[in-house]
Amino acid sequence: MVERRRGSGLLAEVGRGDERHHGSRTEPARPDVSHEVIVRDDGYFDPESAICRIGRESVLMLGGGRALLMQAAHPLVAAGIVDHSRYRDDPWRRLARTMTALYTIVFGTRAEADRMGEIVRAVHRSVRGRRGRRAYSAADPRLMLWVHSTLVDTGIAMYEAYVGTVDQELAEEFYGQMKTVATVFGVPPDVHPATLDDFRDYQRAMIESGEVRVGPDAREVARSILEPPVPAPFRPAVRALLLANIGLLPTPLREQYGLRWTRTDRALFAASSHSSRRLVVPLLPKPLRLTQRVPLRLLTAFARL
After folding, report:
1. CA distances from 124 to 7, 117, 185, 252, 261 (A)
2. pLDDT exceeds cutoff 90 at 139
3. What are the beta bridge partners of residue 291?
């Protein structure tokens, strides 16, 4: 059983957000969660479900930069980030809030998860604008699906790079349960690709068609991720972290961002991945290795920095 915790402060912090909510009341109705899901008494997912087995590995949190780079590669998602957040000043705080919301739905009680979903949906309704002739809204199911897809893809990619192999059965289960997470966030169930293979085809088609393509807003967001305002002593660690985030990007997006990926970079990344899977992660104490053993209030505190 996952350790329970008081969630009111956590929910309030995420609800405060970078975006501006203009005072409309949130809908009290519970999200329509219609996907197959392993349910326990106090949460949406059983502790041994795929989403918990993969998601509880704390190393997955280090892939936040990759997910954000992929999200920003969609021009309308990038426009929303630029227009409605303080990404230039506080890129890590925004990331902490995003991860807090995700982990609350995966590991929290149903009440905490549903309340988090209400907060996120309320914020999304206020995020809207235009880029040229194109209007955008964070509540647009197509944009929500792309953002969600980056979390699914990054979770599997980071797990395989630093923890272990994800076989087809486990990956399919993880994908199905992540659709439940997306539904709680507000993504309509009928927009999801049916299977993991369909999902892969969807992501590939979005990039190959040019619907997802790095533009000026994405490059602005990327600067805040790739050149974060951190003290000098932390810069070597940040550079090492960025190596993984860059290396795991789809090749077309990495090239569109203008990010170099040399033979040396590939060798360093391969060595880092190998040592993590064989030595580092297996030897980590459980309180450090497993997200569910790290109280989410720590992420909330980080989000306030």
Report:
1. 21, 10, 10, 29, 35
2. yes
3. none
| pTM listed for this prediction | 0.83
The burial class, CB within 10 Å (0-12 / 13-18 / 19+), for 117 is: buried
Task: Kindly report, residue by residue over 184-206, the tens digit of the pLDDT.
Answer: 999 999 999 999 999 999 999 99
- DSSP letters of 29-77? SPP---S-----SSSSS-TTSHHHHHHTBGGGGGGHHHHHHHHHTSHHH
Task: Tell me the HSE value of 39 on the side-chain side, using a 13 A CA sphere.
Answer: 9
> If residue 10 lies in a helix (H) or strand (E), which one and from where to where?
helix 8-16
Phi/psi of residue 128, each to 5°?
-150, 160
In the chain, the amino acid numbered 305 is: L
Q: Which of 143, 138, 145, 253 is nearest to 199 (CA)?
A: 145
Spans of all domains in the chain: 8-20+33-287
Given a cut of 80, whether residue 302 has pLDDT beyond it is no
